[in-house]
Write a structure and sequence with these properties.
With 467 residues, the protein is an alpha+beta fold. The protein has 13 helices and 15 strands. Strands 6-5-10-9-8-7 form a six-stranded antiparallel sheet. The protein has a five-stranded mixed sheet with strand order 12-13-11-14-15, with helices on both faces. The protein has a four-stranded antiparallel sheet with strand order 1-2-3-4. The chain starts with 6 loop residues before the first helix and ends in a 5-residue tail after the last strand. 32% of the residues are buried.
Length: 467
């Protein structure tokens, strides 16, 4: 946890973890001296016990000199204070050992107190961060904002320096980062992400801890051969309790229980494997992220239903009124033109009466498909009610609008004739700014042209021309 000494001592020892059995043989009563343990070089076999720092000193026969590798140890929970290389070069006196024992006792009490305080602070921070995420959910913030709060909360409260919230792409299954802390979203680590199916072997029951999955690097590499190429941890330790580049993730689930992504964390700042209690907290953050994703999907669905026709999937009258006003405003601001087309089916009531409402619904869907396929990506298609449709064609003028109208009307008439004999369509077309100066007037003029087309049987009438 801390090393005071030269650079080689710090490099050798910092971040190393050991099983307690390493110390049991060394802390034997035969080495006990005034409550400390003085272990002369050669009196205990340290081989195979883990990394050990041995300073370079000349050999000597003087029994009172500090021999290479000798050290004092104070065994007291929660750890060991190990000292070496006395400035005097001699073995410690009884007074010095008494001071060392006292320091060890105080260090144990201070460490226990500090650990309890740190654990309390971490739990409080985790709770605060979880409450902050919940507040964002209540405030209906965007899913990106909520997921970013989750990533930041995990990093700040749980001590992982790198956190990513990844969702599976519906088309490819590949994990896509939606929020991160410690990484930027354009970091090269996200350039070639695995698919959710590739990650599933790492989410086996034998790796489950506290609702998360903790996988040793050798197991991760075996189950996912390209694991090492995806990312390598930088804050690693050594020993049985050290973080050695493990895979740690908390799965995210949709409302049906299917896995939709994960929270991936790495590089714990203490370089140690996380305790089960900490993983429980990570699981809570994952639950919050899952709720945020589900809530965002529901909001998106409600917004979609508010602006779309349930039968055809086209934009509805509410969206039409809004977007017509927006397009007219944009055309006026930039000195552009636009065309509005209204379409009404001829013989639709007869089709419903003769073949039933299901046939009428099928006809409406077919018209919607043809209108969508015969228009540009910039055009907007609407079902504005009953058997009436509208198309807004930005940038269309007196030349482009008739060309688009011929393409659209021919497609609709041909399709209807092939599946619903006797069913036709009439069209009215209005131009801005030639026929009107505001959206309401443009709609009225275009609607008048539509009904002129229906009465005259001419199929298509342009407002203001009579043709």
């Amino acid at each position: 946890a801390a090393v005071e000494g030269d650079a080689s001592a710090r490099e050798t020892l910092l971040g190393v973890t050991y099983e307690w059995d390493v110390w049991r043989g060394a802390l034997d009563e035969r080495f006990d001296r005034r409550g400390a343990y003085l272990i002369p070089e050669g009196s205990y076999d340290w081989s195979g016990q883990g990394p050990r720092y041995v300073p370079s000193r000349p050999a000597t026969e003087d029994p009172e000199l500090w021999h290479q590798g000798a050290s004092e140890h104070r065994p007291d929970l929660p750890g060991v204070v190990s000292v070496g290389e006395p400035v005097s070069g001699r073995r410690p006196t009884d007074d010095q050992l008494d001071v060392l024992v006292a320091v060890g006792a105080h260090a144990a009490l201070a460490m226990q107190s500090a650990q309890e305080a740190a654990e309390l602070a971490r739990n409080r921070r985790a709770l605060d961060e979880l409450l902050a995420v919940s507040a964002k959910l209540g405030a209906k913030e965007s899913v990106e904002e909520v997921l970013q709060a989750v990533a930041g909360g995990v990093r700040g409260a749980l001590g992982f320096t790198r956190v990513a919230v990844e969702l599976a792409d519906p088309a490819t299954g590949r994990l896509v980062p939606r929020a991160s802390s410690g990484w930027s979203l354009d970091d090269p680590v996200f350039a070639d992400r695995p698919t959710l199916d590739e990650m599933r072997p790492l989410m086996d029951a034998r790796f489950e801890v506290g609702g998360c999955y903790l996988v040793a690097p050798e197991d991760a590499s075996s189950l996912l051969p390209r694991w090492r190429s995806l990312y390598r941890s930088t804050l690693v330790g050594r020993g049985p309790h050290a973080w050695r580049g493990h895979a740690l993730m908390a799965p995210l689930h949709g409302p049906d229980g299917d896995m939709i992504g994960r929270i991936w964390v790495d590089d714990p700042d203490d370089r140690l494997l996380p305790a089960t209690e900490l993983l429980h907290s990570l699981r809570l953050f994952a639950d919050q992220a899952s709720v945020a994703i589900d809530a965002a999907a529901r909001v998106a669905e409600l917004r979609y239903l508010a602006d779309h026709d349930a039968l055809t999937g086209l934009l509805n009258r509410r969206a039409f009124v809004r977007e017509l006003a927006d397009e007219v405003d944009r055309a006026e601001r930039y000195g552009r033109s636009l065309a509005l087309m209204l379409c009404d089916l001829d013989g639709f009531k007869r089709l419903n009466d003769a073949a039933g409402h299901q046939a009428g619904d099928d006809a409406l869907r077919e018209v919607g498909k043809v209108l969508s396929s015969r228009t540009r990506a910039s055009d907007r298609v609407f079902r504005v009610g009953g058997d009436e449709f509208a198309v807004i064609l930005p940038e269309a003028d007196g030349v482009g609008a008739p060309m688009a109208m011929r393409r659209i009307s021919l497609g609709v008439q041909t399709r209807l004739a092939s599946i619903f004999p006797g069913l036709g369509a009439s069209f009215g077309v209005g131009l801005y700014p030639g026929d009107a100066t505001d959206p309401d007037e443009l709609y009225r003029r275009t609607d008048a042209a539509l009904y002129d087309a229906k009465r005259s049987g001419r199929r298509v009438v342009f407002s203001g021309t009579g043709d």
